[in-house]
Known about the structure:
The protein is mostly helical. It folds into 2 domains: about 300 residues, Orthogonal Bundle (2-methylcitrate dehydratase PrpD); about 130 residues, CATH 3.30.1330.120. The chain contains 19 helices and 4 strands. It has a 4-stranded mixed β-sheet with strand order 2-1-3-4. The chain is globular and about 70 Å long. The two termini are about 40 Å apart.
Amino acid sequence: MTVLKTFAEFSAATRLDQLSDAEREILKLHLLDTCAAAIAGSNTPIGQALRELQAPGAGGVPVHAPGTISDVSVRTGTVRHTEVDDIHTSSNVTPSSMIVPTALTMARQLGINDPQVFGGALMAGYEAILRLGMTIDGPVVMYKGIWPTFFCAAYGTAAVTARLLELSVEATAEALAIALTTSTGGAGRPGPRRPGRWLMVGEAARAGVAAALAAAAGFTAQLELLDGNWLAQPHGIDGKPEAMTEGLGGASIVSELSMKPCCTGKQAAAALSAFRDLLEEGLDAEAASAIEVFVPERYAAMIDRPAGPNVHVSSFGNIRYQFGLAAFHPESLFDAARTTKVEDARLDALMDKVVIKVDEALETHMPRCWPARIEVTTPAGKFEKTVIAAPGDPDRRFGREATVAKFHAITDRLIGESEADAWASAGLGALADSAGLDRLIGRFEDLFGG
């Protein structure tokens, strides 16, 4: 049996009640966390620009027709660009940004409000997108110019849609194969103003939905793609196809998801956490004469990039700027828009004191953890902090209280505390029954003008 057929046998039969109570709670929390990213993203210039593509553009032709599967493109891109969405470190894929908006959007369009089927679609999507990410060794290929989420998006959303459609095993396998043929990973670095990467990652998600609908209509593709050299020849990837099926049907992969503590690139999260810990312990940031940040070599250059003209994108990875916000404007760590750089002489002075260095010993913790160590020199002495697992990682998992607190930190400023409470209730209650799922689907549609 082919790899795709084996996975399809699992994917076509997923149901919410297959999860343990602990896994179901994790799924609820990541559903809520993605809602926070959706609210934040819909209020940024990039999120608004993505929605504008649904209006007539050049020659009077819209890029996206609202009320169709193109809604998936707009909504997934909106969530992903916030850098507050979750991540799976072993695949380097940000799954919920692709899986959750697709599931909510297509459930509405297909008229599905059964939590068992909806939850099963989430499960199928998470397993698909993350297992493909591990198959291509996402943490390694990322630094060869392949964006794992972009590469895996279609495969994940095809699994979501196929499960919502309740396709047969055979049709599900065809949907996955069709989706795979659309996979590409070379998005390049974000451009200024309106980076096309957020449009194109959404288009990848849309392609997966189209693949499932096409399979339902009888379209087919090569089911042996992951059994031969398909990853190596067109893509130059030494794949690990065993990752697609190893342990399938055991513990859910949702237990391996990491939440981000705020709007930050994952590569910067551990160092930022260490610095925030020192601040809470009484560090006087203005008194620091030197701040050394030690990380594994593979992402040292990434967090060392200067904040460029596209402040929104570059600020999430630039650890100097993140330290400045943590010290002097901590509320801005939860601002997904970041349209302009915060002008503050104290922040600028602190940024000049930060140096990024490589510590090869930290590499041993990857890919499960993306660690960092910082050393801060002050007149009062040297302060040190090492963070292996950042807050929100599986080893330091956010429970309900921490997830709701993060949700409010992001959304209260945008929609008010009362409305944020209503959203939190809807997110946490969506998997309880059909009425709860309808409430969340309705809120999600209203958020995007559906």
